[in-house]
Amino acid sequence: MPKVHVRTYGCQMNERDSEQVVQMFIEGGYTVTANEAEADAILINTCSVRDQAEQKALGKMGMLAAHRRTRPHVVYGFMGCMAQSRGDELLARFAHLDLVIGTQKYHKAFAYVDAILRQRLEARMDDPALALMGGTVCDIAEEDGSQNTIRDHQPKPLQATAFVSIMQGCNMRCTFCIVPDTRGRERSRPIREIVAEVRQLAAQGVREVTLLGQIVNLYGRSEFSRVEGKSPFVQLLEAVHDVDGIERIRFTSPHPIGYREDLVRAFTYLPKLCSHIHFPMQSGSDRILEAMRRPYKSAKFIAICEAMQAARSDLAITTDVIVGFPGETEEDFQASVDTVERLQFDNAFVFRYSQRRNTPAAELPGQLTEPIKEQRNQILLETVNRIAIAKHQALVGTRQQVLCEGPSKNNSARLSGRTTQNKGVVFEGDASRLTGHLLDLHIDHSTGFTLYGSVC
Ligand code: SF4
């Protein structure tokens, strides 16, 4: 039975896409291996949003060149956003690379790999010419309906949570972001198909789903109508809320554009919606938001956060902030710090701006030096961490409902789960008995970003 190894660098959407690809290989009779040395096919799925993920993926593929000398039949491929944006250039760069599969072609990964692998395996295994057989493939074309192909899950024992991809693409053109080029325009899946997928997950024991989209609250805006003043996204939330067995719903990431009153109100009558949103702010300065081509003012972002906090009193908000964007002055930077202080985010990912090729911001004047970016990064991180640590500490001594997700990744002798506010909790217990259950835990102590609790 051939073995496939799929490695993912990047975001939750990439993780979800990789899961879909893995499932297709399993259905095709392959086994999945975590050991690339024994794999017959090695696929790397890479996000393009951060330079670091791209560099790791390129470095990894470079190292695999030596691997081909001892195992000439192995098929090597790149998938995902970097494959989409670099295309043939990757084939020219890596002589051993067989496949480049774009973001609208994940569903073809299995057929391409299997065809090349079969051809090689049918030839003599010790033939050095094997590596040249099967040709190379670069498939990065657009494909209608490709958003509907990310829908299958690999049933895992004791799986409490799952990601569900509800749409692909983005129509915004933020000047720092390459996503509109790599993922195409917004395309949404029908509500009934998403609900069928969620029902299937619930039947397998999943209790929490996270709905994924580049701008999740704009789900279905070009395909489906508003009904009784409710956006397609709120209609979808209601439909998923009705699925028996699903206890918690999360979504990521929303955008201030299209974040309307109906979505705020949904948090008052849909109790399965978790008390957490990850809501990217990017900057607290209107001048920088405009340069980023983010079509909202800081005041609007703040107003949405405050309306959400009024709708759900225990709401946790996390965010993304970019520091050192081209032209960012000390005043602009201070506006970001002030907004973080005002909104008291539960946590934030702080990114130092880095020039990404093929993005308008890379060409903007006023690029800042690395020491300035690093200094701002440190200042903002200190603010974010101080608030986050205090928020974790404030939960010590309280009782929290936690969905047990199974053994902790850092210490498999313990269990881990998350509160409705998405805060991680580690505790003692029997994984086979507690995984997938909502438990009341007493929070005993906090080590900064992790809570430790005991079953009440
Ligand atoms: S909203 Fe902006 S940052 Fe987000 S995916 Fe679209 S273009 Fe990129």
Keywords:
single chain, 456 residues, alpha/beta, Rossmann fold, Transcription Regulator spoIIAA, 15 helices, globular, binds iron/sulfur cluster
Describe the structure.
Helix 13 (330-343) links the parallel strand 13 (316-323) and strand 14. It is built from 15 helices and 19 strands. The protein is globular and about 65 Å long. The longest helix has 24 residues, at 370-393. The model has no long low-confidence stretch (mean pLDDT 93). The protein folds into four domains: 3-139, Rossmann fold (3-Layer(aba) Sandwich), CATH 3.40.50; 144-274, Transcription Regulator spoIIAA; 309-393, Transcription Regulator spoIIAA, CATH 3.30.750; 399-455, OB fold (Dihydrolipoamide Acetyltransferase, E2P) (Beta Barrel), CATH 2.40.50. 35% of the residues lie in helices and 21% in strands. It is of the alpha/beta class and 456 residues long.
